[in-house]
Specification:
This protein has about 450 residues and is mostly helical. The protein has 19 helices and four strands. The protein is globular.
Length: about 450
């Protein structure tokens, strides 16, 4: 069936929209990834223009490699991962919006490079042992629960942004939800509800005096990203390598969960329109290799370690736009933002209340996709093994992320490496993996239904 004749408009990963649609849909992806990626840079001392440029580059490289190697685009956007924040801060002690010295950034790049190599090695191991083996180490109860805590654990951050003006945030959220529900199936306009919601929120913000364009006026039209290169020298380099690269262990289930999510939704849409499924979840190992290549690129040029973004997965699930070429366009726009100071400043002028309204919806969808992943895989929550793993992940991930400053669990025993504490979401993922490993090594009796 021709794309234009579908009763449910959307795009599968290998499908290419018209160029005009592709630009708008790509910009919507950039708008979705922008707050988290820029926040990570501002929070940890990295240069915003560099992070935007390199995130776009890593996304494009991953998409091109996936199409080249497996004949299908794996539609994922790569942005800065929050799992590494505590490791960066242990080295930079960064102040908000103040870039760290080139020396410190270069040392952190060494750790990010090692992270990339680690992910590539794990990805190759998974390719050799197969999906069945990784499913034992990362069963749906882990990947689904991790996806859930990533979304729900960030809920407090979304509410914090929304709290700058609750009225604007709530109107933005409701309008965006209305667009996503009532415009679905209405052609191209039904595929850009987040962009429409952001525009509506921006306009609503004007009479409240929330729009500040002084940054746009002051910004230069053309800027050059501040590239730095990795350094394996210096007193802190061993600490940087250890504290950063070890966090890759926590991002593996996150990345895997995102792949499972997008695979589930792509195949469901393909089934609904009578097309062949893509079975992207068969490429877990290759997906981790792409993650590693992305981090290697980040480490080479001075950007934060990354991961594929649940926010953009949510956007695709809402809009039914899974097009790989659209994500390539998004990567190109992100790279362009790294050079155009005024455009970057204009996107940055979106009020926090508007971002908060969008984030409540998007972060919530991430969490709900985790639940959908467990439902689709028929995870029994009457099984005591599953209950134990999911319970620990949920409580440590959500409770720790909301209950402690910055989402860092105070663990004095690890203070030498993690002076601010262990990141709750990453720790929850690791705990889930370890508990599951115990069950794999010491086989429990036949599962008893509670």
């Amino acid at each position: 069936m021709a794309i234009k004749d579908r009763k449910i408009p959307g795009y599968l990963p290998n499908e290419v929209p018209p160029i005009g649609e592709m630009i708008i849909l790509g910009f919507q992806h950039v708008l979705t990834m922008f707050p988290a990626t820029v926040f990570c840079a501002l929070f940890t001392g990295f240069h915003v223009s560099t992070v935007l440029f390199v995130a776009g580059m890593a996304t494009i490289v991953a998409l091109i490699l996936s199409k080249w190697r497996i004949g299908k685009f794996i539609p994922l956007y790569y942005g800065s991962s929050f799992s590494y924040l505590t490791a960066y801060l242990a080295i930079t002690n960064a102040q908000w919006g103040v870039p760290a010295s080139d020396e410190l950034i270069s040392m952190m790049q060494a750790g990010i490079l090692v992270t990339g190599v680690f992910n590539i090695i794990i990805g190759y191991i998974i390719k050799v042992v197969g999906k069945e083996a990784i499913d034992k180490v990362l069963p749906p109860i882990i990947t689904g629960s991790v996806a859930g805590i990533i979304g729900f654990g960030l809920g407090f951050a979304a509410l914090g942004m929304a709290g700058t003006n609750w009225l604007v945030a709530m109107v933005t959220m409701v309008v965006t939800i209305m667009f996503s529900v009532y415009l679905r199936g209405k052609g191209f306009v039904g595929m850009i509800p987040i962009l429409l919601g952001a525009i509506a929120g921006y306009l609503i913000s004007i009479p409240f005096g929330l729009i500040d364009l002084s940054g746009v006026a002051a910004a230069n039209w053309f800027v050059v990203p501040h590239f730095t290169f990795p350094s394996f020298g210096g007193a802190m380099v061993v600490t940087a390598i250890f504290s950063i690269s070890i966090m890759a262990i926590a991002t593996i289930p996150e990345s895997t969960a995102h792949l499972y999510q997008i695979s589930l939704y792509v195949d469901r849409y393909a089934e609904n329109i009578g097309e062949e499924p893509y079975h992207l979840d068969q490429h877990i190992g290759f997906n981790l290799i792409l993650d590693g290549i992305g981090d290697f690129i980040n480490g080479m040029f001075g950007s934060t370690a990354g991961t594929n973004y649940g926010e953009n997965n949510s956007l695709m699930a809402i809009t039914l736009n899974y097009s790989g070429p659209v994500l390539i366009m998004a990567g190109a726009i992100s790279m362009l933002l790294g050079f155009i100071g005024k455009l970057e400043a204009l996107v940055a002028s979106v009020p926090q209340a508007v971002s908060g309204g969008l984030a409540i919806y998007l972060f919530g969808v991430i969490g709900m996709q985790g639940i959908a992943l467990m439902v689709e895989n028929k995870v029994s929550l009457f099984n005591p093994r599953n209950l134990a793993i999911g319970a620990v992940i949920m409580v440590v991930g959500i409770g720790g992320n909301i209950g402690y400053p910055g989402g860092f669990l105070p663990m004095p025993i690890f203070q030498g490496v993690f002076p601010n504490g262990l990141p709750a979401i990453a720790t929850a993922a690791v705990l889930g993996i370890l508990i599951n490993a115990v069950f794999l090594i010491f086989k429990p009796p036949a599962a008893v239904e509670l």
